[in-house]
Amino acid sequence: MTGLVSHRFSAHHSAGFRHPHQPNRRSAFGGHRMTGRELVRRTLAGAVRMVFRPRITGLSNIPTAGPFILAANHLSFADHTFLMIFVPRPVFFVGKAERFGRPGLRGRLSGKFFERMDVIPVRRDGGRGGVAALELSRDVLDRGYAVGIHPEGTRSPDGRLYRGHTGAAWMSLTTGAPVVPCGLVATDRVQPPGRFLLRPVRFDIHFGTPIEPTEFAGREKLSTSRRQLTDQIMREIRNLSGQEFVDRFAIKGQAMTAAARPTDQRGPVT
Questions:
Q1: Cβ partners under 8 Å of residue 243, min gap 6
Q2: What is the pTM of this model?
Q3: Per-chain mean pLDDT for the chain
Q4: Interatomic CA distance for residues 18 and 2, integer angstroms
Q5: What is the rounded CA–CA span in Å between residue 111 and residue 153?
Q6: Tens of pLDDT along 225-269?
Q7: Are the C-beta atoms of residues 202 and 214 closer than 8 Å to each other?
Q8: How far apart are CA 177 and CA 136, in angstroms?
Q9: Given 3-state DSSP classes, what are the helix, strand and coil percentages for the chain, each rounded to the nearest 5?
Q10: CA 69 to chain centre
């Protein structure tokens, strides 16, 4: 069942969480009924593999059961889509609420797609909207599913990796779910900021070893624990993506106007 969340989400609606599908329903598709979401995922995965020939490593690091948090760098508008279609389990991504309810045919189609893929909308007001999205994400994890998030909070304006916000760490420390770091490479060349059409450029997705929050046992509620775990997550992402690290927060919207950095500062691409 899709429609876990919608653009009408608010902090008071988290009790209305619906399972994305009921597991173990028998059919001809590998012994289970293929949901609409899974059909979309498999179709898109095949098309993307054919056109872009992505290099994907570390899929064995994705837990086969139980909740986990997928934390990735953010280079392109297409990052959500690529991750959702190549991770073999449903991942409910935290995405900006502005993607829903846009005017025009393209806006409506985009909104329907992200609703079908169960994106968790976050209002980027720096306050109640972000807290509400994290609370719903915690609900998703508590039910045994996976949540995806970009700790930088916005796309990189110049291809470098910026300081992470503590949302992913908060979810991990609150629920005990491990964090799977992920490094994306060259997705900003597939879809540069401000462009709608995708370019047939090869890109990489690298999944790292899950990070368990066990070393923070007894200190889960401390802000220092959230920052330390966040910094650990960002180090792993940097190792996977090969990006230069910038120890400050990225500015929202800057990616639309910033010029691209030279290739040699964006990580290894061959």
A1: 73, 156, 159, 160, 161, 183, 237, 265, 266, 267
A2: 0.79
A3: 81
A4: 8
A5: 20
A6: 999 999 999 999 999 999 999 999 999 877 655 544 454 444 433
A7: no
A8: 15
A9: 40, 15, 45
A10: 9
